Structures are given as C-alpha cells and as structure tokens.
Amino acid sequence: MTPEPASPSAPAHRRTAGTTGPGARVRSRLAERIGAGAAQLPTGYQRMGRVLLLRLPPGLLAHRHLIGELYREELGVETVLLRHGPVRGEMRLPDLERVAGDTGETEVVEHGIRFRFDATKILFARGNKTERERIGRLTRPGETVVDLFAGIGYFTLPAAVHGRAGRVVACEINPVAHAYLEANVRLNGVAGTVTALRGDNRTLPLETGAADRVILGWLPDARPWLDRALELLRPDGGVLHVHTIAGTHGGVAEAEAGVADALGRQGIRPAAVAGREVKPYGPGRLHAVVDVTVGRAG
C-alpha cells in the first residue's frame, strides 16, 4: 500500500542546546514538575522533519511521556520517539517507543531530495548524509546502477536525481521500506529511471554483466555480497561501493585491506581501492565505505 502523503519538512539534524535552547527550556519546565531529577535530562535531540528522536537516562524513563509532551510544545513537532537500543535483525528495525503523538510518518529533505518514511519502522541514519550526497556526485550520467540494499532510496535517489543515471535497479527485502521506496521514487520524479524490486537480492532476477556501479550499503559488513555484486558488473568492469565496519585503531586502512582480501580470495585483483570513514559506529569502531574499481581505470 502506498503511504499517505506528508508535507515537506526540514532535513534530519541533531541539535544541542545551551542555557536558552529548546532542550534547556524543557529541562527547566521538567524541573518545575519533578524537581532536581530533571538535571539528568540531556539537552540534545535529533529532529527528522515533524518527528523528534530522544535518548533518556534510566532515571527519567518513568517521566518519558511528560518529557515527550514538553518537547512537542517547545518545538511544534507532531511526534516524539524514544530510542531504547540499536537496530534489530536483517531488516535493521529501529528499537523505538512513541512517547508523544500519534504517527511516525515524516519527511526529510536532504540535498534537494525528499525522503518520506515512518520513523517508528524505518532507520534513517543522519550520519550517512555526506555519503548519500557523494554517491550523487560519483554517479555518471547514463550509468546503470544497482543498489543491492536500497531501503527507502538512501543511495538510489541521489544516483538517479543528482547523478542522472540512465537506470537504477533498487533491491529491498523489507516490505515497508519497499513501499516507501516506490513512493519516494515517484515523489522525486525519477519513476522512469528507477526500477524498485522487492525481495532478497541474492534471488531476485537481476541482469548479469550490465552494471557500471553497484552499491552494497549493508552493515555491519557487505563483503559476503561481493560475489553477487561482481557478477552484475559489465564484462569490462565497474565500481563497487562496499560498506563495512572497522576498528578505530586500524581505521580506513583496515577496511580497505578487508575488502581487498575478500576480493583476492575470489581471484580478483582490483585496479583501485579507496576507503573513507562515513561515521563513528559505537565504541572503538567506525563505519567505512570502500570504493573498488574492478577491471578498468577509475
């Protein structure tokens, strides 16, 4: 089912407040209700359009609904969500609780691209913003791009809208994310460019030997899908964007070596391997993406 439209909104972002910002004002109002315990309230938050995402210490969980309503009043958002833990399972479902408001659906505008989604059901990683923009710059006009883990269109849409790809084949196994992917393709006017396929990319009937670029945006490690990606590239080669996790000590070099080693075990010696950090990924780890040129110069 196609989701109902939502009004455009500001980009997802995180804010912290000093002594006069919204977070500080909520803390002050909370102190009037519960006393000194309000000092535990963090003043930072993440706003995704008309939805607000919070983290709370254990000592304030009993007051989460009150805090949610106070934030709704201060910021004029429709819904406040509380994050409890990391994403869950193969479909990367967010572990969230709605503490104020009735809907999780929102819309984020980023680099001129509209992403519509239900924040209670779909992960929208704010820290991937630069990487989404970069894919739009790297994609060449007329290219055939395959996005093996499309989600709601995180990388598919930049490749189609800003990269002006000739064709983007977007694979998504999560039915809720796939519905939003189809909606976002129409919303951004690229229905003639993007083919949105629902199902496991390992069994979907993807055309082999046709892609100029394959995006492997899966965490914690997309390397198990390298064999699938390689068979999709054109016979003269192409570019892979492989997402993985590395230790902060080894950093990007560790990620590059891990991808090069995985390719080597398949008898592939890439023409170029270049990694970059996307964002921190928990204590002692970072999210990296490794660009691999196979079979031809950059």
Please give the largest β-sheet. Answer: 7 strands, mixed
* Strand arrangement across the biggest beta sheet: 10-9-8-11-12-14-13
User: What is the CATH class of the largest domain?
Assistant: Alpha Beta
Strand content: 25-35%
Supply the number of helical segments. Answer: 7
**Net shape:** elongated
Give the N-to-C terminal Cα separation: 41 Å
Overall average residue pLDDT? 90
**Which class best fits the helix and strand makeup?**
alpha/beta
Which architecture of the largest domain does the CATH hierarchy give at level 2? 3-Layer(aba) Sandwich
| Helix and strand sequence | EHEEHEEEEHEHEHEEHEHEE
Number of domains: 2
The number of distinct β-strands equals 14
Note the topology.
Elements: E1 13-15, H1 22-34, E2 45-48, E3 51-54, H2 64-75, E4 79-88, E5 93-100, E6 105-110, E7 113-118, H3 129-138, E8 144-147, H4 156-161, E9 167-172, H5 175-187, E10 194-198, E11 213-216, H6 226-232, E12 238-247, H7 251-264, E13 272-280, E14 285-294
Parallel strand pairs: 3-4, 8-9, 8-11, 9-10, 11-12
Antiparallel strand pairs: 1-2, 2-3, 4-5, 6-7, 12-14, 13-14
